[in-house]
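Quick one, probably user error.
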């Protein structure tokens, strides 16, 4: 990972990258200013945003869970020369990321305004609707490589379902995004109507780390340090994977494809092994499960690669990838964030050409039907 690209791409590296076009499953666009949303936001909610701002499910007052030393959690070299915040300038994004790495498709993941964590569900739904429209107008329609997601707040499931229907009618969105930090674990029945509709529409369910659930992000309570918060993303994703599997979501919705984004993948083997062990001992508690939990994981779930766990010995990373499964991994850069993964150096272990093709392109092509 890197918070700055320390040298320009060499000619031979550009050639190597071009041989294998990349599908990047985690690119963060940002609004330049709140006024970008005005044409998509009713006057009532424009005024609400101006007068009240966000009312979030968070104990942080006047700050975020990210350090001031990495403003907006961005790479130091990602601030556009034309002004604005990292990720807000399409031309700069093209020059710095899309063109040199030969990105064939990039999936947009919007984090602005913590849209999944708004206490006022109607305001949250209005912001989600505005940002969903903004994604098309400011990004996808201006560069066909960039693909938008339908952002919905699952705690207002009726509002979320209405937004899914509205966006799905356009045929221009490639997945439905929900937050891993909701009011309850994601396997709960209250969220099933969203999963039902995602399956019917054949749209993958994307779950990107971050946001505020109102609960401590670790089982031990609130962390002291920013690096603890970052570490907790893996715990959050693991607990939601466990909830989805053991509550029976993949059994209930067998055609639903679920993609965990920006949670890494180093924790997956141990989570599967433990779920399988407990399933053998407590099978009578979960009779709705017809197979071992690991079998559901390997058939219904995918994981983006960033942030990659980096053991000292390359063979350990190789073993980890084999345990998770080459077919389960989708490359992601997390551009323009500070812990960005450069496609040239992301995997510090040898991969065959066929394996590289799967992780950097073919797996995402199959999941998202590009």
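Nope, works fine. Designed sequence:
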């Amino acid at each position: 990972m890197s918070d700055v690209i320390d040298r320009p791409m060499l000619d031979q590296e550009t050639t190597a990258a071009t041989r294998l076009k990349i599908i990047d499953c985690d690119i963060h666009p940002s609004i330049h200013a709140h006024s970008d949303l005005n044409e998509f936001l009713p006057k009532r909610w424009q005024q609400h945003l101006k007068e009240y701002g966000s009312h979030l499910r968070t104990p942080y007052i006047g700050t975020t869970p990210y350090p001031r030393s990495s403003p907006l959690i961005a790479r130091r070299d990602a601030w556009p020369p034309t002004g604005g915040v990292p990720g807000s300038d399409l031309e700069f994004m093209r020059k710095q990321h899309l063109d040199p790495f030969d990105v064939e498709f990039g999936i947009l993941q919007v984090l602005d305004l913590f849209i999944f964590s708004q206490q006022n569900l109607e305001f949250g739904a209005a912001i989600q609707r505005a940002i969903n429209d903004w994604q098309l107008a400011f990004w996808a329609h201006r560069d066909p490589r960039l693909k938008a997601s339908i952002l919905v707040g699952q705690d207002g499931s009726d509002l979320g379902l209405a937004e899914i229907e509205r966006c799905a009618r356009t045929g221009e969105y490639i997945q439905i995004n929900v937050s891993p930090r909701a009011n309850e674990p994601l396997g709960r029945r209250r969220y099933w109507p969203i999963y039902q509709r995602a399956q019917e529409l054949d749209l993958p369910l994307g779950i990107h780390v971050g946001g505020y659930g109102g609960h401590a992000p670790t089982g031990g309570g609130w962390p002291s340090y920013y690096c603890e918060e970052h570490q907790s993303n893996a715990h959050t994703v693991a607990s939601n994977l466990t909830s989805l599997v053991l509550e029976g979501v993949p059994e209930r919705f067998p055609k639903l494809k679920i993609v965990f984004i920006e949670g890494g993948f180093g924790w997956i083997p141990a989570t599967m092994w433990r779920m399988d062990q407990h399933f053998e001992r407590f099978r009578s508690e979960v009779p709705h499960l017809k197979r071992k939990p690991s079998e559901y994981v390997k058939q219904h779930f995918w994981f983006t690669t960033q942030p990659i766990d980096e053991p000292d010995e390359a063979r350990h990373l190789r073993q980890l990838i084999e345990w998770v499964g080459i077919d389960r991994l989708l490359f992601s850069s997390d551009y323009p964030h500070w812990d960005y993964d450069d496609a040239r150096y992301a995997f510090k272990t040898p991969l065959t050409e066929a394996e590289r093709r799967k992780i950097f392109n073919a797996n995402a092509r199959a999941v998202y039907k590009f």
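The first strand starts at residue 22 and ends at 27.
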